[in-house]
Amino acid sequence: MYVSGTDFFHSTQSSQPGRASEATGKPSPENVDHSLRTRGASDRSASGCAHGFAGTTSTIDDTATGSARDTHRALSGPLLAQVLTASTYSGQIAEAATWADQHSYLKGDALVHAIQDDHLPWDASVLALLPFPSVLDMMARDLAWTKQLGNAVLTQHPEVMDAVQRMRRKARDYGYLTPNGYVNVLTDGGYIQILPVNPGVIYVPYYDPYVVFAPPRPGFVVTAIHFGPAVTIGAAFGTWGWWFGSGFLWPSHAILIDHRPWERVWVGRGAYVHPYAHPWVHPVGPRVEVHHRRR
């Protein structure tokens, strides 16, 4: 997906990375920061999702979502937004990644029909990522990291968004994050936005965060950010937050899904229902597995 990074949050000297607060069960800011940072430092996969959380998501276009480890890898805004919100349902990611991999041959309307036919029970933010098996795979390969990312989004999402901007500025200042045939890179009010050239076609970026977030060697010109195959998001995917687009209102630190602020936080997280324009109605009955024909 569009994600990758190095230093998502602020540096800390915590000796117990990732330890939850004993009083609340929530990750303390310093431990989440440490965990995201060290996760990014050890993951150099093609997903480039989060060299830490911020690095990965920072390169996702602004109509999607991203993170900071490999997620930071130039994800466009829309995809990055969907990744961030889906991470708060980390318990659903592994099954969703398996389903997406098994059905990766399906595209467009055929994929939408398969999602409906199989009575998939997951949250709409997770279903929105099914067209992106590589992104879900990145999230599923390190569920502990994904859970910590989700907890950070629930408890510190302004800090998460600030971290994304810091990593984007690094990649831009080093000359790696530039407009191309896949994404437009814009600066608006001091905030860097990454938007797909064609709003209905999204490319998942991948890169080595150790290159993208470090100064280039003098005299060397490197194309460090690469993109996977095009993923077309048509009107049929609108039910899962793609109808009016997703992205960010950077000055107010708002995540937008279907152009509506996504307001799920730690307190009341189990009861939150996002006001989608065309809400996904989960099918009645248990999940089933329909054997969809390969074409």
Account of the protein in words:
With 295 residues, the protein is α+β, with helices and mostly antiparallel strands. It has one domain (29-261). Helix content is 33%, strand content 15%. It is built from nine helices and eleven strands. It has helices at 29-42, 53-57, 77-87, 93-102, 108-117, 124-127, 133-141, 143-173, 209-212, and strands at residues 49-51, 60-62, 69-70, 75-76, 183-188, 191-196, 201-206, 226-232, 247-249, 254-257, 260-261. The strands form five sheets. A three-stranded antiparallel sheet has the order 9-10-11. It has a two-stranded antiparallel sheet with strand order 1-3. Strands 2-4 form a two-stranded parallel ribbon. Helix 1 packs across helix 8. It starts with 28 loop residues before the first helix and ends in a 34-residue tail after the last strand.
Compact summary:
With 295 residues, the chain is of the alpha+beta class. The chain has nine helices and eleven strands. It has one domain.
Topology:
Blueprint: H1 29-42, E1 49-51, H2 53-57, E2 60-62, E3 69-70, E4 75-76, H3 77-87, H4 93-102, H5 108-117, H6 124-127, H7 133-141, H8 143-173, E5 183-188, E6 191-196, E7 201-206, H9 209-212, E8 226-232, E9 247-249, E10 254-257, E11 260-261
Parallel strand pairs: 2-4
Antiparallel strand pairs: 1-3, 5-6, 7-8, 9-10, 10-11
Helix pairs in contact: 1-8, 3-8, 4-7
